[in-house]
Amino acid sequence: MKFIWRSALGALAMGAFFIGGAPAGAQNFPDHPVKIIVPQPPGGGFDTVARVVADRLQHLLGQPVVVENRPGAGTLVGTDIASKAAPDGYTLLLGGVSNMAFNVGLYPKLAYDPVRDFTPVGMVVSWPYMLIARKDLPQNSFMEVIDFARANPGKLTYASAGRGTGQHLASAVLSHLAKLDILHVPYSGAQPAYQDLLGGRIDLFFDNSSTALPQVKGEKVKAFAVSTAKRYAPTPDLPSVKETGVADMDMDSWFGVFAPRATPQPVLERLRTEMAKVRADPSVIDVFAKSGGAMATMTPQEAEVFARSEAEHWGKLIREAGVTAE
Questions:
Q1: Rounded Cα distance, 249 and 231, in Å
Q2: Domain limits at 15?
Q3: What is the pLDDT at residue 7?
Q4: How far apart are CA 160 and CA 167, in angstroms?
């Protein structure tokens, strides 16, 4: 898990926090329930992270913390709603690499700006993407797949959970950086993609490791590489794409809690203090460790620079790759 700012942006000046006089309500925050907007349906990675955080955070805040799923248009609807919420700390957003970074490149115009409209309360956890394949694919290593793809343009297929998803972008970015021609087959979610992968009807799937790992451990698929710059602890024998020299790739699926940018500083400080305790909770660490997740350790200042660098990096790279959500 990188969760550090990119060296080219490490010297960026921090955006100024809201430092005006705190409203009277900030002094007693919170005095009623807090909600975390999840811009995806129940059951996915966004939802899982939000519910683990909410369960622990409500005990620390002394008020209920409610998860509110607001799916639609990928992650656009829920994120836009959160960006327009009152900046009082009572409406937070579960942000991830998709809605806070990928969307910058996928859409020519967003209704929200992930950097201008939001500030991190705390990063939480991340997973790499893992390149897996149908069990009967003739190739048995990452380099064998790359060599075959280069010698046979358009012959291999890769699945995604839909256009613009992390699975799509992991494969599309790899194809762009490595100059490969592999056919994209979008599905309406990871489950139907797995049905065809396990059935031998699709060749490759660059899926989130949290869902790919059980398939690998069950020997239902082959595993070839991971998307992060370093190897993944649960699969130490798998190379990273970057170490093979095929592509300078460093990509993970990260999640964090964000607040509207103009939230009063005293409220942010309370939320950030309690979020740090959530991240340090052994039960939280254990929940995410079981699926191979790496906990974040960034300070709020580091998270600010990280979120900005991710939006700039992926926005630029996705546009260069010519990938769109449509």
A1: 12
A2: 7-127+251-321
A3: 37
A4: 5
